[in-house]
Each structure stands twice: as structure tokens, then as C-alpha cells.
Amino acid sequence: MQLSKLEIKGFKSFGDKVVVNFDEGITGIVGPNGCGKSNVVDAIRWVLGEQKTRALRSDKMENVIFNGTKNRKPMQMAEVSLTFNNTKNLLPTEYSHVTITRRYYRSGESEYLLNGVTCRLKDITDLFLDTGIGSDSYAIIELKMVDDILNDKDNSRRNLFEEAAGISKFKIRKKQSLKKLEETDKDLERVDDLLFEINKNLKSLEKQAKQTEKYFQIKEEYKLASIDLAKVSLRDQKDSHVTLQKNIENTTDTRTALNAQIAEQESSSEKQKAEIINSEKTLATRQKTLNEHVNKIRNFESDKKIKMNV
Predict the structure, then answer these.
(1) What are the angstrom distances between the C-alpha of 231 and each of 54, 70, 234, 243, 285?
(2) Considering 172, 268, 302, 304, which has the largest number of Cβ atoms within 10 A of its Cβ?
């Protein structure tokens, strides 16, 4: 595995896109002070996942973005890409060329890419775990690190030997395992707390369960009693209905008989009315005849008186 190319854009002093090709035989970068050598090392460490701003010689992560000059505006994003030749398949991937990219925006958002595909920092760390390459490894050494190794500052010499011997990756795995164990212990403590709370509420839940069971029992009894009551009420309603039906039939028969009597009486009344009318007509005729006779008698008497006077 060999570092083949470094692409920097908007990172620290690199306002323009810069491509550094590491051809075969190149093992270091030299140059005068202030030309950006340390920024190249910072860029490599940064793209490999360095999170400590102090290790990048900055106060905050936003300072890694090109801050502009008198003649240029500040950039809104820093981007660094690192390409490796994986012809010997030292990296656990099927690609012969592996490119990792890191981007950071002034808004605080960041992203990692592996061969152009968005991924997590953990994916990149796991990819380089067995290779001795990392943000804090000695695969990339800057000038001040040489003095630290010679002076054995912070056990840097021992760390160098452990990394060269391949012990660092096991220490990292041990640290990860211990962290997982610590998290597991916390989870177990949390489980114990939950069990305590569950046991504490168990009696209350049992009481509620008994009350619920009694409630359903009473509800079932109420249902059966309601059904029996409905049956009794229905039977009474049926008996009342039969009685009322009989009363209605008797009343109907009585009404029919009364209607027949009324009709008969009305018929008889009509006949009597007709007879009265006939009698009145006869009486009127006889009265007329009587009146005529009376008039004749009066006329006769009147004529008789006149003759006697004469």
C-alpha cells in the first residue's frame, strides 16, 4: 500500500486546489519556513479523522477553512482527499485505488466519503486499523515529532516502537473493548434500576390486574343479568301485547255492532222522517181543503144574511 496523491482545497493556507503526487521514491516534503509543509501534514492527519483542534494547531475546527486575504474572499468549505494504491490488497476492500475525502463547512456540518460514497469516520478508522495509518500514527512524521521522539516526550519513543511492532492496533482494540465493557456495565446498572422499578410497581400492577379481573367478572354478571331482565321484560311485553290485542278485537267487535245498530236506527229514522213528511203533506192538503170549505161556509152565511135583510 502506497500513498499516491493528496488533494487540498480550502484547507488553511491552500485557497486554490493543490494536488500533491507522491510518486515512487518520495518519502518526505522539504521547503523553507512558512511554505506550508506543516499544513500538508495537518491536511493528511485531518482527512484521516483528527478531531483535536490542538493537534491541528488551531483554536477551533472552523479555522481549518481558508480565511481569505485582502484580495480574496474566505471560502465556505475545506476539502481534503487522500488516495492510496491498494495493489497488494492490504486494505480490506476490492478496490485497487482507495480515496478518502473529508469536507467541513462553516455551518459546522462535515462529511466523510470513501471512493465518493458517503460513510462514517468509524468506517475509515476500521479500514486503516491494521495498516498502522491513522490520524495519530507515526506513519506520517513532521519536524517537531522528530524532536519529541529523540527527547522521548510523552513516551513518544515507546509509542513509535509499539506502532512499528504492530501493538498499537491491539491497544486500540483493547480500548474499544474496555469502552464497550464500560457501556455494558452501565447498561446492566440501568437494567438493575429498571428491575427495581418493575418489582416496586409489581404489587400495584397485581392489584390492578385483580381489579381488572373482578371488573370483567362483574361485567359478565351484569351482561347475563341484563339478558335475563330483557327476557322477563320481553315476556311481560308479549303478555301485555296479547291482552291489548284481545281488548282491541273486543272493542272492534263492539264498535262494529254499535255501528250496525246506529245504521239500523238511522235507517229507521229516515223512514220515520219520510212518514212524517208524507203526513205533513197529507195534513197540508187536508188543511187546504178545510180552509176552502170554511171559506165556502163563510161565503154562504154571508149571502144568507144579506138575503134575510132584504
Answers:
(1) 88, 99, 5, 18, 79
(2) 172
Distance between CA atoms of residues 11 and 63, nearest Å: 9
| CA angle, 80 then 91 then 163, to 5° | 85
- Residue 70 C-alpha cell reads as 485582502
- CA 10 to chain centroid: 42
pTM strictly above 0.85: no
- Dig out the grid coordinates for 259 from the structure: 255501528
- For the record, the C-alpha cell of 270 comes out as 229516515
CB 146 within 8 A of CB 160: no
pLDDT single digits (tens) 194-253:
888 888 888 888 888 889 999 999 999 999 999 999 999 999 999 999 999 999 999 999
C-alpha cell at 237: 311485553
CA distance 180 to 163: 23
Q: Where are the alpha helices (DSSP H) in the chain?
A: 37-47, 121-127, 143-150, 156-164, 168-309
Q: What separation in angstroms does the CA of 280 have from each of 178, 256, 272, 291?
A: 137, 35, 12, 16
Alpha carbon distances (Å) from 248 to 12, 236, 240, 276: 108, 18, 12, 41
What is the maximum alpha-carbon separation in the chain?
Answer: 201
Distance CA 83, CA 20 (A): 10
